[in-house]
Amino acid sequence: MPYLKLIRCGNLLFIALCLLLIRFGFFQQFDASTTLSNLDFILLTIAVVCIAASGYVINNILDYEADRINAPKRLVIHEKISEKSAYNLFFTLNVIGVGVGFYIANVIEKPSFSAIFIFTSALLYFYATYLKHIAIAGNLVISLLVGIVVLLPVIFDLYPAINTNNIVNQRFIFNILAYYSFYAILINFLREIIKDQQDINGDYKVQSNTLPLLIGQKRTNAVVFVFCFILFVSSIIFLSEDLYKNTKAVVYALVFIIAPLLAILAGVLKAKTKKDYAKFSLILKCMLFFGLLSLGFPEYLIS
Among 268, 292, 284, which residue's Cα sits nearest to residue 190? Predict the structure, then answer.
């Protein structure tokens, strides 16, 4: 179990589920033309999961000092797994992820696309060692990587199958997934700032330069409030202009987007304790989960 904890298996399952829902739910529903066989798509999923897992491992290794304060009960490095074993796992996961990614890029006859896996792997290391200690930049980079996960099936499965006969439908599918990707980036960005609030003591100990340490918790709460408000208004406009005829989609959005945003808006300016921020972080995680879960049954929402 310590290894499952080290690689954050719950988050990895979510990534795998998201990719599989796009391929076997979303693409099928919209009659998308695809390139990869089912086995190759599963290999793509494995490559993505391995690289994401390596990112969690290197984070856990390098965050040891901060985690001793922020999350002492979740510590596994030095407590249950040696640092050397963790580094070995980190390298092994990267080799598997990049290797399988290289294979997939060759299957679709786009070998240059293997650079995506190499670049992502390098960026996750750069994030853990340097970027995460820089206010906003670290939050933005990790959020962009979360958003890219949604677009990977487009890059490796949808794009290579485009021809003059299906280009309209392929483009339509890409546009919808681009919305989902943007949604994932925004929600995760907000959650990363909330997590910085939650982990302020440990981050202070390791001299990180996160937003709460830079401008204070009260001002950071105000930033989160303004960001949430903009997101709330944008969501209302989107619902009223594009989805208002789809009752099920509107209800789904009200329950899993609008109501959670209202809960954050109502409480974030008064938030002070680790428990407060943990609650908002969980709300945002649920928003991300249920938002991306809808990829699996678009025919039910958009009917």
Answer: 284
